[in-house]
Amino acid sequence: MTNLSNIAKSLNQESISSILFEYLDDYGLNKKLIDVVLCESGIYAILSDGKMIKTVMHKNLIDIKEYKKSGAPLFHIFGCKFLKEAEKEEKIEEYKISFKRANSFNFIVREGNREIKVFHDISLELCPECMKMQEKSLDFDSFFQSVFDCLDLQKRKRDVELISIIYKKLKHFSCEKCNKKVSIQDIEDLKLKIYKDSSILKNGAKLKILCKECV
């Protein structure tokens, strides 16, 4: 597989985002390669050009003992307590982020650093905690089409605040229109704007950070 970090050095943000989306859509990506926000309303990958994609996560690397005990991994559609615990315990790197149109996943069973078996196109069960957070039975088509309701920000206020903080940090606390940079003390002067983006397979939103003069 091509080294993404080497490609990134010679490409602009739009090109990098296009490549990242292709990987999300095909192979999936390790969390360390992309900014991800775990929210109650979903798992969002934030691309370098400000596009926000709703994704799913599953444990891509399974220890042989864990596999013999519990079988195939679960997949996640929300920032549930299991993912939050994995993030806290710094085990989130074992998970892969992907954009899925069907319940079809790959994962690797290993013993130490040695791969024992690689599974392809396996149907996985939904995490029980994510199932509790899901209001109705999961349908992948409707799940990805109901991405991020920009008209319902009050309902998802905590999620928007979390995404705002992470995206402001990603953009180095600078306005994307006039390039004005603010101090940490004045971070509230930067506002997160969310625009619907129908070009990303009916899945996504466009983020932009603006100072109070450019809003």
Short description:
The protein has 215 residues and is of the alpha+beta class. It has seven helices and twelve strands.
Top keywords for this entry?
single chain; 27% helix; 215 residues; 3-stranded mixed beta sheet; 9-stranded mixed beta sheet; alpha+beta; 12 strands; elongated
Write the layout of secondary structure elements.
Layout lengths: L3 H5 L4 H13 L3 E2 L4 E5 L2 E5 L4 E9 L1 E3 H7 L3 E3 L4 H8 L6 E4 L6 E7 L2 E9 L2 E2 L1 H6 L6 H6 L11 H14 L19 E7 L8 E7 L4
Parallel strand pairs: 5-8, 6-10
Antiparallel strand pairs: 1-7, 2-3, 3-4, 4-6, 4-7, 4-12, 8-9, 11-12
Q: Taking all residues together, what is the mean pLDDT?
A: 78
SSE ordering: HHEEEEEHEHEEEEHHHEE
Cα distance, first to last residue? Answer: 41 Å
Largest sheet: 9 strands, mixed
The percentage of residues in β strands lies in 25-35%
**How large is the radius of gyration?**
18 Å
**Strand element count:** 12
Question: Could you name the ranges where pLDDT drops below 50 across 5 or more consecutive residues?
Answer: 7-11, 146-154
Q: What does the oligomeric state look like here?
A: single chain
Helix % is: 25-40%
The figure for the number of domains is 1
The helix tally amounts to 7
Structural class: alpha+beta
Inertia-based shape: elongated
